[in-house]
Fold this sequence. Notes:
The chain is of the alpha/beta class.
Amino acid sequence: xxxxxxxxxxxxxxxxxxxxxxxxxxxxxxxxxxxxxxxxxxxxxxxxxxxxxxxxxxxxxxxxxxxxxxxxxxxxxxxxxxxxxxxxxxxxxxxxxxxxxxxxxxxxxxxxxxxxxxxxxxxxxxxxxxxxxxxxxxxxxxxxxxxxxxxxxxxxxxxxxxxxxxxxxxxxxxxxxxxxxxxxxxxxxxxxxxxxxxxxxxxxxxxxxxxxxxxxxxxxxxxxxxxxxxxxxxxxxxxxxxxxxxxxxxxxxxxxxxxxxxxxxxxxxxxxxxxxxxxxxxxxxxxxxxxxxxxxxxxxxxxxxxxxxxxxxxxxxxxxxxxxxxxxxxxxxxxxxxxxxxxxxxxxxxxxxxxxxxxxxxxxxxxxxxxxx
Length: 373
Ligand code: PLP
């Protein structure tokens, strides 16, 4: 008998961490996937009050407190016109757990899961942990996921495909007609579409649409999270919404693995969802400004860079040795291959950092580029 399961041996610790560890002290970190804002003040206050009043001491319902689930349903009604029942929502420990329970509940041993390549690191790992086989689909040149490529990759073994718009690591937003296509594919092929919408609020050009708006079957599971919507990564509060039968299956995993999401975080997220939304606009505006600075700076350096339309990442094509040269000179960027084989030749930069550091980093990256070409 081996010490560890084959499933866990099939995954490794994310390559992103290795980059951080290789960097010297004082490096400018363009590797981090978190907004550099505080959580909204009213969200923090709601958690403090819940703790002070003794309302956050006990387990909550497995799915989460009903007032939070009502706030999530109201958010999706407000933003997408969806008519969700609060019982068809599970509050989770971030979008990460939401993705995990979606995979565990729907992927059988040997099933295939179609994932974007390059794509967020968890899709490959969570598929393997569910004993499935990831099927990476290369993105288009503009770094969006091509519905035709997804449809072509479907086999009799396909359990699900993952859509992530706005995307990590690309910053690309799928146009509405593609989102509609994803819903049609899920309906017609009877495969599950796992729609990871955690960057929903960070869209600069175009508009955010969810496959859940278009699907005629219940073949869409939506993952979202307070992490990036409200700059609350540390609170660990996300959610999943789907049909009752899918929620019931995902709850079986959530109940045994997690019992319930952290109670103080649930109160904070409820306040974030129901309170003033000005911080969301401020964050988006600030990311848009920084996006412009970074894209212009990278183009001036001579790099080819698809202009990101959302999230806070940019993925330029980079020459060999560029990432290491940046690291050596004190700027942390993540090699594209950390996000899949087709990420090779790219680097991911997060611009969730202040403008002064961004400008300094661009200068250094210019020198790094000159040193390697
Ligand atoms: N999905 C995507 C695309 C992400 O980039 C992340 C985090 O970086 C997550 C999900 C998970 O976020 P969290 O668990 O903090 O909600």
